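Tokens for chain A. Residues wanted.
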């Protein structure tokens, strides 16, 4: 299925934080938002494994990969029905690719495999794990902008980095549920961001437009929205109040 066949839901449009970046809520492209997509997930840890389970539960085709190779993914594949593959195979999935690996692993990825792909960056920068990255440390780059620089040509969108894996697994709720957890989504490519917001909504969370990749520092660790399970209004407020 083409990426163009995934319209933005009305709830997603209402959750937009930065009006200048809000997609047109009347823009419909005629697709079935529940139709199966082909998704790659690189990383089988807490977030990668959880997204594999949740997206398979929604009926999507998932190819999952990690640094240890397909053989190490047999148990996850047997549990979920996902296809174990190589990083290159996961990266070439038709609709989008989730990156859920330690940030220090990003420079080792086969960058050419991601060219033109929607890449959902679920990573966070943790210096104690990833080592020092001067450009992120001095805040000249957000971690997602740094990642996009290593995956030149990819359509990078920041999402799923603010929620704990058990909550991603268990706390999705139907649209309109009071206190539904909201997740910020940041990116430069409007179409790619619409797709990711649609997926966030389908997983049971309110998507909130958090601006561009350069603004994604607002959802990095140690910000008000990180790990706090706020609703949509709370996420908008947290994004607005945080300071560099």
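Reply:
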């Amino acid at each position: 299925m083409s990426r163009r066949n995934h319209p933005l839901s009305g709830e997603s449009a209402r959750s937009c934080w930065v009006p200048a970046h809000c997609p047109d809520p009347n823009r419909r492209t005629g697709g079935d938002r529940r139709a199966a997509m082909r998704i790659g997930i690189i990383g089988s840890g807490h977030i990668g494994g959880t997204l594999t389970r949740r997206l398979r539960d929604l009926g999507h085709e998932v190819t999952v990969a990690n640094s240890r190779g397909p053989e190490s993914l047999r148990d996850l594949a047997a549990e979920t029905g996902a296809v174990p593959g190589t990083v290159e195979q996961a990266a070439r999935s038709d609709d989008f690719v989730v990156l859920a690996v330690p940030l220090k692993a990003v420079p080792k990825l086969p960058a050419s495999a991601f060219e033109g792909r929607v890449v959902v960056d679920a990573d966070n920068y943790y210096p104690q794990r990833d080592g020092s990255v001067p450009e992120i440390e001095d805040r000249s780059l957000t971690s997602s902008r740094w990642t996009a620089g290593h995956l030149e040509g990819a359509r990078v969108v920041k999402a799923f980095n603010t929620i704990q894996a058990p909550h991603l697994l268990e706390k999705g709720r139907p649209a309109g549920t009071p206190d539904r957890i909201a997740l910020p989504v940041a990116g430069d490519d409007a179409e790619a961001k619409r797709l990711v917001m649609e997926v966030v909504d389908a997983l049971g969370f309110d998507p909130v437009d958090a601006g561009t990749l350069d603004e994604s520092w607002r959802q990095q660790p140690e910000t008000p929205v990180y790990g706090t399970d706020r609703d949509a209004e709370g996420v908008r407020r947290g994004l607005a109040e945080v300071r560099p």
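The longest strand covers residues 182-187. DSSP finds ten helices and eight strands in the chain.
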